[in-house]
Write a structure and sequence with these properties.
alpha+beta; 5-stranded antiparallel beta sheet; 4 helices; 21% helix; 36% strand
Length: 164
């Protein structure tokens, strides 16, 4: 994938993405927060075949969806995002997990594992960013968690066994 950024004085920034599959996507980020997204014909990379305009909120929602914050494809459920020793991983709370019905505070998740729950995405797709100790874990919710490998191992045990 090739990404090229160009400043557009008085307008914003142009970002051109040429994907591995041969697609060309151009995103114009306007100074007012608006985004214009153009998709180009594979046979004529100068001919735009579709365009969409998003306001700032819409663009952030779409970015979260594309980035996997709202849904993680089944094929990718075991993939980790790693930054040196920091790993961000997704955990779906299965119905047989012993942590269900307990709060993050009751489980002492951060104290006993060192991992941090960044977000919870409920089965109805409602999102809770940076949930506090009073947040109660529910079946089929997905946790987005940051920590080192050993911290993730400890967290898995807490989620499975429901104890600290």
């Amino acid at each position: 994938m090739k990404i090229q950024e160009i400043d557009l004085p008085g307008i914003g920034k142009k970002i051109q993405i040429n994907t591995r599959s041969g697609d060309k996507l151009v995103i114009i980020v306007h100074d007012d927060g608006r985004r214009e997204c153009y998709h180009f014909d594979n046979d004529d990379l100068e001919e735009s075949i579709s365009m969409i305009t998003l306001d700032d909120d819409e663009a952030r929602i779409v970015a979260a969806m594309i980035g996997g914050m709202t849904y993680k494809p089944k094929k990718l459920e075991s993939i980790e995002v790693a930054f040196d020793d920091l790993i961000i991983e997704w955990y779906k709370l299965e119905p047989d997990f012993k942590c269900l019905g307990k709060t993050i505070g009751e489980l002492h998740i951060r104290k006993n594992s060192g991992a941090s729950i960044l977000a919870v995405i409920e089965s109805n797709h409602s999102k809770h960013i940076n949930p506090g100790p009073d947040y109660r874990l529910t079946s089929n919710a997905t946790l987005v968690v940051a920590g080192e490998r050993q911290q993730h191992k400890l967290l898995k045990q807490i989620l499975l066994n429901g104890c600290d």
